[in-house]
Write a structure and sequence with these properties.
The protein is an alpha/beta fold and 629 residues long. It has 26 helices and five strands. Strands 3-2-1-4-5 form a five-stranded parallel β-sheet, with helices on both faces.
């Protein structure tokens, strides 16, 4: 127990002081580390979104370039290399973000320090929208792969999506480490199968099989001899969807074990390296096999068919892709709760989002993400195409704000080679800004307008919450030394309805708390109620507890309003007294038996809290019913 006195202050284990290994603080730190991530676990818990994007990133490039026919397909590798270069810029930038902002928050933390509060809220809002949409898109994409293999399940895809969401949510409520362990095998299976497919494919002279594309309509446009800059820009912007999730590690640095920043940096580099190798490798295979996109078959499926053949290995790749797409939502569950906790600490979200459960889980952030994602899944009917146009716009906004903020960071600190680093971040901001603008413009009528509308509304919500906390802080005079406490005369009011052991315990507690105790009972004019009231008065006089019993008449059978009205009158009559309402209640040992009891205590407490400033004390009398089996 820590006791604060008005004298000299003493400090133990102050900031920056390293505790010996055998101290209670060190033991608690080691116990907390059990619920935090290693670098490998972080790769499984926070990279699923980025890893899964190789299933639709290259395909997005191909579908845009296919408009220009086979000639346009020849630009797949140059566009992919440009995206890989941007990926390298982002990874290098976020490594610096992790080092400079080890408390997490990514773009929000950078913008808050270097670009102002309003800009930081736009960064946070964009990331929140991206995280929510990532959950919905990932789950629907995974379920779409399942229903493609088993068409009879298509009608129930919404319920399947909700089932997958419940599963991922339940795993994350057990802690980020448990989710990492659960998803480590699917991640390893997917990455291993894609890398094996790339290696085997590069060793072949031509496709082994084209069975998956047979009988499907080609999506290749008429032949063209020129490819315009706008088409390449659209292909680049579409392929940048493969970069979603790169920021998740920087947002969730506090989820890693100590040294958290170093482990997070290793995870970021590993994520960037794996993602870059897979994107470039798949692009090389597309050119090597002269792939032609077809309707109804993914590019990844055609590449697996061409590299590995239409056999067991082909279905392994498809199964791994399906599982990883469905589980890619876990990236959001790792990043968004940490972000919302930072927003809550800054008074932009309810403070409940900053609370942690025993397993170091921001449970309210996890549940809020699950509920909003479930609503999106229901409204979209589990259809991926409805959600994809909204995807990735938010993350581009976050990327751009973060890069611009880091330019200001280097300009302010001016460390060694700061100009080179600032130029790198500035170039990245230009690329992500252009990509975000192109995606928003090209997808505006397909649903991107919702993001353009939702983001300012979300920021306005943050501002309103912040103003509300500001008014509360002003009323409480936070940051100021209050007046010395003084003792006021205490009056305790005890509502009673009859004589029992509970009444005795309530009056005993009240006399221990207050200088004056008043018992009150609410009566009604009905004849049967009058008889009960008279019987209570007779029994009260015989018992003689030394406490006055006050009768409150009520024309109705309501309890709350008569009690709150009496407390208001008492407060007005005794302005210098502290009024406390002590409400006695019974509580059964078994949960189902509690449903049998009335809710008078809750009704009275609600009315007193709503209408008065009195202190409410609820006295629970536990009833052990050993025979109620």
């Amino acid at each position: 127990m820590v006791v604060h006195t008005g004298g000299a202050k003493t400090a133990e284990h102050g900031d920056g002081v390293e505790e010996p290994p055998d101290t209670p603080g060190a033991a608690a730190s080691r116990a907390g580390d059990r619920h935090k991530l290693t670098a490998l676990q972080g790769l499984a818990a926070l990279s699923l979104d980025a890893m899964a994007s190789v299933a639709y990133g290259p395909e997005s490039i191909v579908l845009v370039l296919a408009v220009a026919g086979a000639y346009g397909m020849g630009f797949t590798l140059p566009v992919t290399l440009a995206i890989a270069a941007l990926l390298a810029v982002l990874v290098a930038s976020y490594r610096q973000v992790i080092a400079a902002f080890p408390d997490g928050g990514g773009a929000y933390a950078v913008a808050k320090r270097h670009l102002g509060r309003r800009t930081s809220l736009f960064a946070a809002g964009s990331l929140i929208l991206d995280y929510v949409l990532n959950v919905a898109v990932s789950v629907t994409a995974g379920v779409a792969a399942l229903t493609s293999a088993f068409p009879q399940l298509y009608g129930g895809r919404t319920w399947i999506c909700l089932g997958v969401l419940v599963l991922v949510t339940a795993v994350n409520l057990r802690g980020v480490v448990d989710s990492a362990r659960a998803f480590l095998l699917p991640t390893a299976l997917f990455v291993g199968s894609v890398l094996a497919m790339i290696v085997v494919g590069l060793l072949r002279d031509g496709p082994v099989s084209t069975a998956s594309a047979e009988g499907h309509t080609s999506a290749l446009g008429d032949s063209a001899t020129t490819v315009g800059a706008l088409l390449l820009l659209k292909a680049f912007a579409a392929g940048c969807s493969a970069l979603t999730g790169v920021e998740a590690v920087a947002n969730a640095v506090p989820s890693f074990r100590a040294p958290a920043a170093r482990r997070a940096q290793r995870t970021e580099v590993a994520l960037g390296a794996l993602l870059g190798v897979m994107l470039i490798g798949l692009s090389l295979l597309i050119g090597r096999f002269h792939l032609r996109p077809v309707q109804g078959v993914t590019v990844l499926a055609q590449l697996a068919d061409a590299s590995l053949g239409h056999n067991v290995a082909f279905y392994v790749v498809q199964f791994a892709t399906m599982v990883l797409l469905a589980l890619a939502a876990n990236t959001s569950f790792g990043g968004l709760p940490v972000l919302t906790s930072l927003l809550a600490r800054d008074n932009h979200l309810p403070h409940v989002f900053a609370l942690k459960a025993d397993r170091q889980v921001h449970r309210h952030g996890v549940l809020a993400l699950a509920l909003v994602s479930a609503l999106l899944l229901v409204l979209s009917g589990g259809d991926t195409n409805t959600l994809v146009p909204l995807f990735a716009i938010g993350v581009f906004i976050g990327f751009t704000i973060c890069q611009v903020g880091m330019v200001r960071h280097w300009y302010g600190c001016r460390v060694e080679r700061w100009r080179r680093k600032a130029v790198l971040n500035g170039f990245g901001a230009l690329l992500t800004g252009v990509a975000g603008a192109v995606v928003t413009a090209t997808k505006f009528t397909e649903g991107a307008w919702l993001i353009v509308l939702a983001l300012p509304l979300l920021v306005l919500g943050f501002e309103r919450v912040h103003r509300a906390y500001g008014r509360i802080g002003q009323r409480l005079e936070l940051g100021r030394i209050p007046e010395p406490p003084r003792r006021a005369r205490s009056v305790v009011v005890v509502p009673v309805s009859g004589l029992s052991k509970l009444t005795c315990k309530a009056l005993t507690a009240a006399r221990s708390l207050g200088d004056e105790v008043l018992a009150i009972t609410v009566t009604h004019p009905a004849p049967e109620d009058r008889r009960e009231a008279e019987a209570l008065y007779r029994d009260w006089e015989l018992w003689n507890p030394g406490v006055d019993l006050v009768e409150l008449g009520s024309p109705t059978r309501g309890l709350g309003r008569p009690v709150s009205a009496y407390v208001r009158e008492l407060t007005a009559a005794r302005p210098d007294s502290q009024i406390t309402v002590l409400i006695p209640e019974t509580e059964s040992a078994r949960l189902w038996q509690r449903l049998l009891q009335n809710q008078r205590g809750s009704v009275v407490a609600h009315a007193v809290r709503r209408d008065t400033d009195a202190v409410i004390c609820r006295l629970r009398f536990r009833v052990d019913d050993t025979d109620g089996r």
